[in-house]
């Protein structure tokens, strides 16, 4: 984790801000793990040699959630920038530092060391509140990160006709991995508070948690470095406000007619990488006006609007006896799809049946006709 944190911090390719936020996440994760493992195996030697590192790992733990959440935002939104208000995410860590200073300021080194080694500088109630707050904070940020991804997948369909390469499912899997780790840690803590966990069981739970952390972090390193070069991201609505206006009926009808004629004659939907920006330029309608016409007239986002034309083209090809030798895969690529699963889902949405069933029924009708 320390190695990749250092590497990402100085890595200049791809999204530099994303790299630095991921670097921060790996760094605080590494500090927490080192502090935790040292405190288990070398508690006396560790704290006596490095007195001022008391609870340093726990301070870093309060940065887990914010750093992962901000990283998620930076991957999803191409115009994401850190604002002054983002400092608020790190207030819990600062408050914990302040609390530690209050606790330690009145003790000498020897007294504080003895308290920490024999018991704990926090009272039972303080430890309970601290651990509860930490777990609620981590869980909250994981949920917020998942909500960012959910909103992102809705938003990209307003701009792109093919989204399978940029849906960020890999990041969602990683977030669920951390939720699993959090649940294991929470279960361990609860059982410890209730004194229901023998020592050997604690070791097993800790091993599961650390192994999950290692596995998820490794996957995050791989995808975090592999995917950014093909991810375009979208404009964040709260970062870049779009001035919305209503078109007059005459303007709307003019744009609608121009769009329909262009779609029928030029068939741009056969381009699998078509975006609303591309279509806007080709049909000579401003992007925000084009988006308004599609949403208002067809009650669809750009993704569904383009896929409707692709499905109609696929239906014609499937029903044509001359295309009998073409496979479903060849047809879906021909009409602009990149993924068989996306094609099958869209086809069933518009026809109520699979492409194979549709072809059988259509060809049988042609024979009977």
Short description:
This protein is mainly α and 369 residues long. The chain has helices at 2-9, 16-41, 43-49, 56-61, 64-76, 91-104, 109-118, 124-156, 169-193, 199-226, 249-266, 276-283, 287-298, 302-319, 328-334, 340-351, 355-368. The model is unreliable at 228-232 and 237-244 (pLDDT under 50).
Quickly list its features.
single chain; 17 helices; mainly alpha; elongated
Oligomer: single chain
The largest sheet is:
none
Residue ranges: pLDDT <50 for 5 or more in a row? 228-232, 237-244
Report Rg: 28 Å
Tell me the structural class: mainly alpha
Through-space gap between termini? 68 Å
Q: What is the tally of beta strands?
A: 0
Overall average residue pLDDT = 81
- Spell out the helices and strands N to C: HHHHHHHHHHHHHHHHH
The helix content is over 70%
Molecular shape: elongated
Helices, by number, come to 17
Strand content: under 5%
What does this structure look like?
The longest helix has 33 residues, at 124-156. Mean pLDDT is 81; it is low at 228-232 and 237-244. The protein has helices spanning 2-9, 16-41, 43-49, 56-61, 64-76, 91-104, 109-118, 124-156, 169-193, 199-226, 249-266, 276-283, 287-298, 302-319, 328-334, 340-351, 355-368. The chain contains 17 helices and no strands. Helices cover 70% and strands 0% of the residues. The chain is mainly α and 369 residues long.
